[in-house]
Amino acid sequence: MSPEVPAVVPPATDLPHRGCFVSFEGGDGAGKSTQRNLLGAWLTGLGHDVVLTREPGGTPLGQVLRDAVLHGEDLDPRTEALLYATDRAHHVHRLVRPALARGAVVVTDRYLDSSVAYQGAARDLGDGEIRDLSLWATRGLLPDLTVLLDLDPAVGAGRRTAAPDRLERESLEFHTRVREHFLALAAQEPARFLVLDATAAPEELHAAVRTRLRPLLPAPAGRAGHPAAVPEERP
């Protein structure tokens, strides 16, 4: 049985912007960073101003918070949730909103749906409460498109090449709950989500993302060069 998800109420505090905001979600090993980078290269080729980022760790302060929450001492669930919310508030204020205001396409590896699935559902903190916390922290900013790369957690664990971080060390049951809740969130907001089978070939996934995103894009800025990027996931 799918977990219950609270009814979605469009945030009243979001601010208008000229750009486009895309998030990639899914469990560890699903290929979020790969798809983010492929999308960034395609968008840059079209002439868009592109910002590639991630959560946590999309700003210098965010990298400090990332190290603390993923590689530091053990944390209780509420502290963990508040650290993610702190990173998100700063990330949106300093990086995401300014880029959207100038008409850029911002592509992030994880956003608030990760907090709802991991801390809200799997940590039993309440998905509604965690969603509300993130909406307050970001003044209601939601992505124009959220791509959910769906993958069996056991398969994702098998793709791991580095030592696991705090969240990756959680049980298979924990990660199964995360996956189920991601799918429930996508079912609740089909207009925002694109759900893809992460076992498909990367180029096949990329093509599906391009098809869904193209109608949402602003006019290209015509800027040359490469997209601004942050380090790869799991440094």
From TrEMBL:
The GO terms describing molecular function are: ATP binding; dTMP kinase activity
Protein residues bound to ATP: G26, G27, D28, G29, A30, G31, K32, S33
UniProt keyword terms in alphabetical order:
ATP-binding, Kinase, Nucleotide biosynthesis, Nucleotide-binding, Transferase
Top-rank taxon: Bacteria
Q: Which residues form the Thymidylate kinase-like domain?
A: 24-208
Q: Which family does it belong to?
A: Belongs to the thymidylate kinase family.
Q: What does the UniProt function comment say about this protein?
A: Phosphorylation of dTMP to form dTDP in both de novo and salvage pathways of dTTP synthesis.
Q: PANTHER family, from UniProt?
A: THYMIDYLATE KINASE, UMP-CMP KINASE 2, MITOCHONDRIAL
Instruction: Supply the name of the protein.
Output: Thymidylate kinase
